[in-house]
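Exercise 7 asks you to align residues with tokens for two separate proteins.
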Amino acid sequence: MCAFVGLVGTAAADAHHVRLRTSHGPVHVWQPSGFDPDTAGIVVYVHGYYVSADAAWRRHHLAAQFRESGINALFVACEAPRRPRQRVAWRTLAGLLRAVERGLGHRLPEGEVVVVGHSAAHRTITVVGT
């Protein structure tokens, strides 16, 4: 089971970033400026090998990239295997989203959920999509 352990957050303008600590590793959640929960979806990003969720968040400027997309969605970046033999951290999309909901302390938007990833993210995407 995915257990919420704690969170830390920062806000700039009306955009908001929270780093959740879960039993499956860190999960970054970013809400863009102008976010409308009534029409929003969720975009889940999964990193590839040789980088952690924290490093991908910083090095790849994920919040800035998502902000530039202009999409009205909650952006979620979760932990994934960093090497070929490492186990997939999140076994279900539902488990990841429940952990995010618990960590945020409120319901998630009910719009479309899209999962995207880089390189070896296919391992996690294949598992959570089944």
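Second protein for Exercise 7:
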Amino acid sequence: MVTRRSVLAGAAAVPVMSFGANDAAGGDDLKLGVASYSLRNLPRARAIGVIQTLGTPYVNIKESHLRYTSTLEEIAAARKDFADAKITVLGGGNISLRENTVDGMRKWFDYARASGFPLIVCAPTPDNVGVVETLVKEYNIKAAIHNHGPEDKFFPTPQSVLKAIKGMDPRVGLCIDIGHTARSGVDVVKSIREAGPRLLDMHVKDLRDFSTSKSQCAVGDGIMPMVAIFKELKRMKFHGGVMLEYEINADNPEPGMVKSFAYMRGVLGGLRG
């Protein structure tokens, strides 16, 4: 049985600076990574340093670390920065994707292709998901629609995304944000199971109280059922990114992120043991 004690013991056994088995590409564990929005107040060089400290080779890049207005030369330099740090870019975003025509939305897919994103975490509307699908097919870049909780009038829950994309190309799916999902009053583990192969990416956060986003805390300090979530992802053989999106303490997020990674690795260590 995985208990909190076994989780903490597993966490203590994993050095922060080393890549654990859970970070190994092609392994049977989960790809723990960082949504760089967590580091939005830090310049790219410092953000990369924090990611290296966390010991993960995976990142989803937010616009604060690779501007939409970047030239091709600037994009190439950013890609080199991550590559030199041996960090694998699993995707980019969140990008709003609110345009209603292929020509209007194309600029975001051009940006993603130039940036080397195999996936865009995005926030379109139910009315323009067909445009997203058209560009996904053209560019062969996956689109993971992000649910944003009860404040989101378009996609508050994973179920609302699944309804909108039913029957679409399998490269159109969702990025489940487990914090926003819990705040919407739906079961997180059940939502992951219902998503199945449509789950392309995940944002991880923890909350002390599912009724308010202001209760966000380091992963393991809240009430998010992380053991059950990771069990379900492993049962599904999920190969997408499991990306920490740490939205608090924006000027100094590293301590909380280190604590979150230690706990998540402890959960995985407990499940393996």
